[in-house]
Amino acid sequence: MKLVFQRFVKFAWAVLLLMALRFHDAPSELWIAILVRFMMISNPFLRKLTSAQNEGRRMVAPLMGFPGLNMTGCTIKLAQQNYGEHFKVMKAIAETFEPDIIFPLMDLAVEANALGRFTLFPQTDSATVPKAPFSLDELERGSQINIARDTRLLGYVETVKLMCIGFPDSILKGAYVIGPYSLAALLMGAEEAALATILSQEDMHAICRFTTEKIQEYIRLLIAAGAQVIGILEPSAVMLGPDQFAAFSAGYVRHIIESCKYADVATIYHTCGNTMCLAEKMVDAGVNAISLDSPVAGVDLPAVARSLSSNVVIMGNINPTGNMIHGKPQDVEEEVLNLLKQMRPFPNFILSTGCDLPQETPLENIHAFMRTGRRYRLH
Question: What is the DSSP track for 233-284?
């Protein structure tokens, strides 16, 4: 009910502003600017970021979920197929670390599985989609599949719903979806997808239009469940050059965010690996934030920040498999503090990890990450 009321209030104010635009003598550009600003302030993600900036602190939002499995004695397979157990895992993370943003367990196989692709479910590892024969003829049949009736996909929707009910307002509730190109790569094979962006572009566009449509269907369910942030995961797209990335990933992500921007929902674009030549293309998609990999992958976060507009948020980029796993808490504190100092000139920065933290990450190291980020002050 609270979510419905908040959206009704926003709608009422928007109507009043539009009426003022129609009947007031002030220049239309002024009222449009006011309306746009109002829409931005209504976005919980941007509102929380602005609040943190005003208080001289950083938002702290490591990508984590899997460490909660050890905290609850759960397995990946059980959590990814039982939303009650999944929620217990996320509840342990939320109560123990209180991050500014929380996402369910990262699972890149949800959408492909919902489309009928053969999927493996290991006991102690994430679900995977093995390579299988693919034909363009499958798109017609796939377009008839209502993924809103897929039980595993609905399990993630229910997990988000429980998170929105059970977690405090101080924690933004996020949800992951796979990116349009990465879903295409799962359907047809990673190598085949990369080659198609050069040799069979018309066919590749047809596949990406299909994957985009299905991802948007999933996002609408997540938004209805109460998700405030949508993380779009495009790991396979790092294989592409800037032009191909713009055409087959960022261009379709721009379509996807149309499902989010009028619903108070923020979008974060995450790509693994060295994205130094792709960051600008990611921003061009119109997302609220980009999430980038660690320096080990080749990402120089301060250099990226200097090259981009301050209107887009930059998240990252502590190495999730370095000191976070193998170091001591003081090693983590030193690494986090160094990044915070490097990013001090950039108000549009959120402290995070370069990718999802592995299950075996020591809890004391996550505490060190959170503690260092919380204590740091800009003024």
Answer: E-GGGGGS-HHHHIIIIIHHHHHHGGGTTTTT-EEEEEE-S--TTTHHHHHH
Same domain (yes/no): 97, 34 = no
The Cα 303–Cα 343 span in angstroms is 10
Give the global pTM: 0.89
Token pair of 67 as six digits: 């460490």
DSSP 8-state assignment for residue 357 = P
pLDDT one-digit tens code per residue, 49-83:
999 999 999 999 999 999 999 999 999 999 999 99
Q: How far apart are CA 114 and CA 83, in angstroms?
A: 16
Query: 89 and 215 share a domain?
Result: yes
Cα first-last separation, the chain: 38
How many domains, in total, are found in the chain? Answer: 2
The domain spanning residue 298 has which CATH number? 3.20.20.210
- Cis peptide bond N-terminal to 365, omega within 30: no
